[in-house]
Write a structure and sequence with these properties.
Elements lengths: L1 H26 L22 H8 L3 H39 L2 H34 L3 H24 L6 H10 L1
Helix pairs in contact: 1-5, 4-5
Amino acid sequence: MRLWISVFSLALFAGGTCLGVVLQPKIAPAPKRAPESPSASWGRQGELSVQRFADRLELTEEQDRELDKILEENQQEMATLGRAMRSAHERCRERITKILTPDQAAQLEMLKAEERRARDLREVDRSLAAWTKPLGLSPEQAEGLKAVLLGSKEKKRGYFGERRHEGDQGKVREFLQGV
C-alpha cells in the first residue's frame, strides 16, 4: 500500500511540476523587455559590460556606434563559425562511415547509442543526487524521478535526432517547453 502511495505522490508531484511549467507563461507572462543590442552582455561574468566599458572610456556617439557594429559583426562571425564546425563534424562522420563495412557501421551506431545512454545516465544520476537529499525523496520516489528524467532525455534525443532545427532557437524552445 505504501508503495502505491509513494508512486501516486511522485506522479502527482511530476504532473504538478509539468503543469506549472506549461501554465507559468500563461499565468504570469514574463515582462516584455526591449531587445538588447548584441553588445549588451559582452564579456565574462565579473568583467566590464559593454555599457560600463563605453561609459568609463567616455566614448563618443560615433565610437559607440562603431563598437556596436564591431560586436554585432563578431557575433555573426561566431555564429557562422559554429555552423561551419557542425558542418565539418558532419562531413567527418560521413567520411568515416564510408570506409566502414555495413556491419562495422551498424556496430558504430550501437556503440554511439550505448555511449549516449551511459552519458545520459551519468547526468541523470548527478541531478538525482543533487535533488534527493534537499527534497527528502525516498528510494522509491528517487527511482520514479530517475525514470521521468531519463524519459525526458529520450524525448529530447528523439527530437534532435529526427528533426533539423537549423539553429532556430525558437523551435528548440517551443519543443523543450512541451517536454
